[in-house]
């Protein structure tokens, strides 16, 4: 099987999980008979849904796009598994992983929906990894760059992978 970039970049998150003292098992996830390539069942107690961005944009933001398929996959996983779900955002250029709880992810999407006034085809979650500071995850206000919709979420740089084993 050929190694895709997705394997390399998402593998960074998987390796950190596998090296954790509490790690015991990882399994792929099937939703309605289809494998979800970037979601994994960890230790039979949580699911991680991974995305990656290789470089930041001109504003220093790593952009993670969630289209309807991604959103539906996360919703389907929620319905099928009664476990915690985490969204792992791999910022390749910064060598950092921003791990959001499903609740934090939903709050960001909700902030954008409120700002826009309706649903959109896709949502961009932005992450900054400024040296010496916590990671920051947020969404832009509708029609405005560099203006937040809601308050940014601060994520400790060393919270992953410990956060998924709590």
The outline comes out as globular
Q: Which residues form runs of ≥5 with pLDDT under 50?
A: none
Kindly, what is the distance between the CA atoms of the first and last residues, rounded to a whole number of angstroms? 34 Å
Structural class: alpha+beta
Please give the radius of gyration in angstroms: 15 Å
Helix content: 25-40%
Strand order, largest beta sheet: 1-2-3-5-6
Residue-averaged pLDDT: 94
Structure summary, number of beta strands: 9
Largest sheet: 5 strands, mixed
Explain this structure to me?
- With 166 residues, the protein is of the alpha+beta class.
- The chain has one domain.
- The strands form two sheets. A five-stranded mixed beta sheet has the order 1-2-3-5-6, with helices on both faces. Strands 4-7-8-9 form a four-stranded antiparallel beta sheet.
- Strand 5 and strand 6 form a beta hairpin.
- The longest helix has 15 residues.
- It is globular.
- The model has no long low-confidence stretch (mean pLDDT 94).
Please sum up the structure shown.
The chain has helices at residues 5-18, 68-80, 102-116, and strands at residues 26-31, 34-42, 46-53, 61-67, 84-91, 96-101, 122-128, 135-138, 153-155.
